[in-house]
Amino acid sequence: MKKYIIYIVFGIAAVISFTACNNKEIVAPGFDVAPNKLTFKVGDTIVFNISGNPDMILFYSGENGKRYANANRLSASGAEKLVFQSSMQQGVIPSNDSLRLMVSSNLSGYDAASVQKATWTDITSRNTKWPTALSTNFTTSDSVDISDFNTANKINIAFKYIGKKNPAAAQRKWQIQNLALSNNLSDGTVTPLFAAPFLGPATPSASAFAYTGWVEVSIKNNTQPGTASNGYAGYNAWNVGTGGISTADSVRNSNGIPIRAAYPITFDPGPTVNNDDNEDWLITTSVDLKTTKADAGTPIKKLADVPLSLYKYIVKKAGVYTMTFVATNSDVSDQRSVIKQVTITVTP
After folding, report:
1. Measuring CA to CA, which residue among 288, 346, 298, 339 is closest to residue 320?
2. Residue 65 and residue 200: Cα distance in Å, rounded?
3. What span, in angstroms and rounded, lies between the C-alpha atoms of 308 and 129?
4. Beta strands, E only, the chain
5. For the chain, counts of helices (H) and of strands (E)
6. What is the rounded CA–CA span in Å between residue 320 and residue 324?
7. CA–CA separation, 238 vs 245, rounded Å?
8. How many angstroms separate the CA atoms of 156 and 138, rounded?
9. Per-residue model confidence as pLDDT tens for the chain (348 residues)
10. Considering the entire predicted model, what is its pTM?
11. CB 218, CB 237: distance < 8 Å
12. Which of 30, 164, 168, 174 suits a disulfide with 52, CB 3.0-4.6 Å?
């Protein structure tokens, strides 16, 4: 009987020991950083002597996009700039047909009723570089400033096509491509909007078709003469998706036009003449102009790495930099960090 009691006692002791080990408190790392000096010339190597052995170390150089003070900044007002390319390929010049550039901050849905109900600001005149001749070549727009809309929680950008009845000519054919929108902050940070999620160095440097979320909305005169045999299925529309209909649901939008999966986006009314007045909108998904990606630190030590005794860095531009080291000890349930900052002056 005593034998079994001893086993039980040892078993309880083992459980207590195991639990104590797994409940070991994470402590802040003993950690310090000292540069070899505080003033350098452009191109010099800064040497940081490091003491302590934390699990992980992140380094923020203090340069644009690498500032610790902005590590959690996800929203900031800047100079929001829009650039795109357009091509005008059919119709007569001069003509009442037109393409208008529009912005709304209160669009509630991607259907005709919502588009007509929304308040739209016509900013066509902010771009002075529209095509002036019929051509398959593309004209790059100005860098259009839309910063006056950044007080809104969201905006939508749209191209409004207006076609007028002409007994002697077909209506205008347009193509749009390479629309890019960016938030440009005074500290030099540039955040591409309509871009992939901010996942680090692999993040695209510009907006992309796949992330802009184009939708077409027909307001006036969907049906036009034409047949599938001549390449016109009998409808006028921008050749992108429709609200509520994705490419997973259908290869055609609600106007029967094959959905485009890449640039350029086309509005093609077909070659017939004397078609009735037409109005069709090409609209982006909503976007917060104040969006900015947080500044990122560079991991210079990971958990499995050997202790780091020094770190070298070169600054290529003159200035005063607050360089920050964040040392962290962690496990699956907790972490403790120590932050060390050094002001470094770099002269020409």
Report:
1. 346
2. 11
3. 55
4. 32-35, 39-41, 45-51, 56-60, 79-90, 98-104, 120-122, 139-140, 144-145, 156-163, 173-184, 190-193, 215-220, 265-267, 278-283, 298-301, 310-314, 319-330, 335-347
5. 3, 19
6. 13
7. 14
8. 23
9. 444 433 333 343 444 344 444 556 788 888 999 999 999 999 999 999 999 999 999 999 999 889 999 999 999 999 999 999 999 999 888 787 899 999 999 999 999 999 999 999 999 999 999 999 999 999 999 999 999 999 999 999 999 999 998 898 889 999 999 999 999 999 888 899 998 877 665 666 678 888 898 999 988 876 554 444 444 454 578 999 887 665 555 677 777 777 888 999 999 888 888 888 889 999 999 999 999 988 989 999 998 889 999 999 999 999 999 999 999 998 888 899 999 999 999 999
10. 0.80
11. yes
12. 30
Structural contact between residues 171 and 278, judged by C-beta atoms closer than 8 angstroms: yes
Domain ranges of the chain: 25-71+296-347, 79-283
Token reading at 124 = 């066509």
DSSP 280-336: EEEEPPPB-TTB-PPP-PEEEE-TTSPP--EEEEE--S-EEEEEEEEEEEE-SS-EE
Question: Which two structure tokens, joined as six digits, stand for 187?
Answer: 């500290």
How many residues comprise the chain? Answer: 348
Measure the CA dihedral 67/202/239/283, to 10°.
-10
